[in-house]
Design a protein that fits this description.
Layout: H1 9-24, H2 29-36, H3 40-48, H4 55-64, H5 71-81, H6 94-105, E1 108-113, H7 124-131, H8 137-144, E2 151-157, H9 158-162, H10 168-182, E3 187-192, E4 206-210, E5 218-220, H11 230-243, H12 247-259
Parallel strand pairs: 1-2, 2-3
Antiparallel strand pairs: 1-4, 4-5
Helix pairs in contact: 1-3, 2-3, 10-12
Length: about 260
């Protein structure tokens, strides 16, 4: 095992992936260590992110866990190769850093926004008006740089577009930015009209982040104890997509709201 260093998010994620594969294979830490020829606590250190397995050890573990090929193996090897790197998000508090890491590596994001314009789509003026002194321009711009190459599907509740956050001028610019973003490849912005009836996602906002192939979907739904599982949020988002306006009609509504914002 490579020399120990304080665990970063990449090593923690590598450890989490290896732990999930071990459990799936029906092995205890002690049994996995015995097969590899070292003590249980070494497996525990790898799985906690406190240590990184050497290439030969990793190859053996993946074979032991039945991962001889495929996307999951490729992702684990990628994580191991970059385990020593520090992501730009590491300077933030752990829970936010984990979300930012998942967002930065996601290939697809689905976001339900019933209260605020999503962070990935906010203008600087809107974000400043919303967050005040808590607004972090470096964080804002780093997240915006993630948009090219990300498949982004957003559903926004109509009242969010009508609230004059920061005043009419700031909100008009924000609506114009939504229209521009909605015309970019891979970005879909739809509006759920106010008159829509009840639906499975009424509890509050959530995000679904699909990582590299073979990795589990990350759910960010801190206020939704009843929707903490990816399947629940997928079902909710499917219902929202069915009930919302299509992208063309959504763009027309955003344009109309902007036109009447004095």
């Amino acid at each position: 095992m490579n020399p120990e260093r304080p665990p970063n998010s990449r090593r923690r994620r590598l450890g989490s992936e290896l732990r999930a594969l071990r459990v799936k294979a029906g092995l205890s830490q002690r049994e996995a260590g015995r097969r590899l020829g070292f003590e249980r606590r070494k497996v525990a250190r790898i799985e906690s992110g406190e240590g990184t397995p050497r290439q030969a050890e990793l190859e053996f573990l993946l074979g032991l866990y039945g991962e001889d090929g495929g996307a999951r193996r490729t992702e684990v090897l990628r994580l191991a190769a970059t385990a020593g790197e520090t992501g730009w998000y590491e300077r933030y508090e752990p829970e936010l850093a984990r979300y930012l890491e998942a967002e930065s590596e996601a290939r697809r994001a689905r976001i339900w926004a019933p209260t605020l314009i999503p962070g990935l789509l906010r203008t600087e003026a809107y974000a400043q008006a919303l967050l005040g002194e808590r607004w972090d321009p470096d964080l804002h711009r780093a997240r915006q740089r993630r948009l090219p190459g990300l498949s982004l599907d957003v559903v926004i509740w109509e009242p969010v577009l009508r609230v004059r956050t920061g005043g009419a001028a700031v909100m008009r610019d924000q609506l114009a930015a939504l229209l521009r973003r909605g015309g970019e490849p891979g970005i879909s912005i739809r509006v759920l009209p106010l008159e829509t009836g009840g639906h499975p996602a009424m509890h509050g906002p959530f995000s679904l982040l699909d990582g590299p192939l073979g990795t589990p979907t990350r759910v960010d739904a801190p206020c939704l104890p009843d929707m903490g599982h990816p399947a629940d949020c997928r079902q909710g988002f499917t219902a929202l997509a069915r009930l919302s306006l299509d992208t063309a009609r959504s763009a027309a509504m955003i344009t109309e709201i902007s036109r009447h914002m004095g």
